[in-house]
From TrEMBL:
<feature type="compositionally biased region" description="Pro residues">
    <location>
        <begin position="31"/>
        <end position="47"/>
    </location>
</feature>
<dbReference type="Pfam" id="PF03029">
    <property type="entry name" value="ATP_bind_1"/>
</dbReference>
<feature type="region of interest" description="Disordered">
    <location>
        <begin position="1"/>
        <end position="61"/>
    </location>
</feature>
<comment type="similarity">
    <text>Belongs to the GPN-loop GTPase family.</text>
</comment>
<dbReference type="InterPro" id="IPR052705">
    <property type="entry name" value="Gliding_Motility_GTPase"/>
</dbReference>
<dbReference type="InterPro" id="IPR004130">
    <property type="entry name" value="Gpn"/>
</dbReference>
<keyword id="KW-0547">Nucleotide-binding</keyword>
<keyword id="KW-0378">Hydrolase</keyword>
<keyword id="KW-0342">GTP-binding</keyword>
<dbReference type="GO" id="GO:0005525">
    <property type="term" value="F:GTP binding"/>
</dbReference>
<protein>
    <recommendedName>
        <fullName>Signal recognition particle receptor subunit beta, a GTPase</fullName>
    </recommendedName>
</protein>
<dbReference type="InterPro" id="IPR027417">
    <property type="entry name" value="P-loop_NTPase"/>
</dbReference>
<feature type="compositionally biased region" description="Low complexity">
    <location>
        <begin position="48"/>
        <end position="61"/>
    </location>
</feature>
<dbReference type="GO" id="GO:0016787">
    <property type="term" value="F:hydrolase activity"/>
</dbReference>
Amino acid sequence: MDFVRSPDWPGAPQGAVATNSAAARYGAPSGTPPPVGRATPPRPPAPSAGRVPAPRAAPTGRAAPPIPVKILIAGGFGVGKTTTVGAISEIAPLTTEAEMTTAGIGVDDPGVRTAKTTTTVAMDFGCVTIDRSLKLYLFGTPGQARFGFMWDDLARGALGALVVVDSSRLDDCYPAIDFFERAGLPFAVGVNAFDGRLAHDLGAIRWALAIGDHVPLVQFDARDRLSVRDALLVVLDRALDRATRERGD
């Protein structure tokens, strides 16, 4: 079979335009090839005399994204760094927790008041939006001395740090304080109130840590979101004061 003709459209005489052709149905001259390429958009009509065309509406501007601020959550082993990040992070925190084994007996001492069975082997990560202009990115450091080589990388670009302290094990926080003092990074010391109480008052803790009055020392609860927020605001205030003084110089 050479062709199929629809019964709805009768054949045209020889030399005439077929009634079911595009030329007959849409008025285009017979033999005119269809336009190739992108169609040219129609020109807007010219404004009539005395009529001013309405101005186009300006695109609505978007609000500027918040400024990212990197904050370290540091301290000794088992003082509550991972808990601190998880309590305030607005996203599911990234943790690198690994089960503690018998190989850590005598090496990793979480203290007698904790049932801790895991430990951070790399870092913790979380974030929290302070307001429309400021967003904190929290990096929790590992507490064991054998992971100390990671601290330099984690501290790069940080604005400040919160050193978490267990008042019953002050010796564990000395390396963190020494690190930030040598690095010249603004920091605050947050004493985690395990079970809502401290082993020593804040004045005795400041004396034992041998930190100056310029270093903020606060009591907080690592499990409570608002308490963690207040401690982080102290770190921001310390960092802002440092930046203001440097700008004045």
